[in-house]
Design a protein that fits this description.
Elements (H helix, E strand, L loop, with lengths): L1 E8 L12 E8 L6 E10 L5 H18 L7 E8 L2 E3 L2 E7 L2 E9 L5 H11 L3 E8 L4
Antiparallel strand pairs: 1-2, 3-7, 3-8, 4-7, 5-6
Helix pairs in contact: 1-2
Amino acid sequence: MGAGLLFSRGPSAGAGSTPAGGIVEGVATESVTPDQARIDFGETVDSIGGGVDAVGARLGAVVRALWAQGMASGATKPTGINLVPEVAPGNPETIAGYPARESLAVTVANLGAVGADIDRAMAAGANAIEGITFLPAHP
């Protein structure tokens, strides 16, 4: 941990007088070793009909696969769903469908299990890893 402290006197009222005030500024940094990981998985379904239901079912399978290996239910959290209109080929005026993309955040408490949990989630139906963040359990 590093720290710095700076003190400066404010303007004085004249020679021999007490300072009118002071300014104290401080800066500190602390380094911690991460003991958990957050993995953001994504799932995109390009189907025109039932895209939302299909993406939800596939991420549901991912969650069940992780829970079956002992992951706590609070360690998985849906973080969003996006629907973006897709135009028909050769006809930009016609919407052909709405591909669905859903995201799921998974907190892995055991850093040694990150690789196995990624493999498990991808085998169960996730088709993208949007990011991995290593962080302390208690910041």
